[in-house]
Protein: Lipid II isoglutaminyl synthase (glutamine-hydrolyzing) subunit GatD
Organism: Kocuria sediminis
Amino acid sequence: MTDRTVHLVQLYPRDMNIYGDWGNTLTLKRRLEKYGYAVRLSDHDPGDPFPADADLLVGGGGQDSGQFRVQEDLQRIAPELRAMAADGVPMLAICGLYQLFGHEFRTGAGETLPGIGILDVTTVGGPTRLIGNIVLESPEFGTVVGYENHSGITRLGPGQAPLGTVRKGAGNNGEDGTEGARVHHVVASYLHGSMLPKNPAVADHLIRAAVERRFGTFDAEPLDDTLAERAREVAAARPR
């Protein structure tokens, strides 16, 4: 490894990695390497020592059973995650981990999984799944496209900023027009598909935050995202 090494950590890949969420980790790794950085890639599963030197964390979605399997370990490392988020460590939390990054998730069966409170959101299991292509407008990232597949109904607290406003799709709850949540350099969303290959602006925000925090500056030539732009156009044009 060189002195330009970024430590990228995927949270709970055994239990929280469905609908192509591994593609987010792969996208960050490939883009970092194209920008000239070496990548140290680690997994964190329940019971593992937590990598407190992580520069960037990524977590995906899972079934309710997967959330139950990781929630005890997530509570164990919650103080470190909250401190890292407040200190500017970038994180991407998708679907199931988005829910657990909030205050709590109440399942459709009436069970409650405590969250870790990085985000001011609460989620309850709804009676139907919200499924389909989704397009939103983000003040930071412009048009964001993806695919949602969740039954969780997420409500934002009064001071919680969303990731964006839904243009097509359901988003957090199908009612208030919000999708995802944002705080510090934490990006949380229901977008699968994977999210980052089709949204390089989001990927580069996470990369820039990680590199600037570790090395002080991020000076790199823009990448050629022609294929990503074509994928975005196709995804945005697909029917709901």
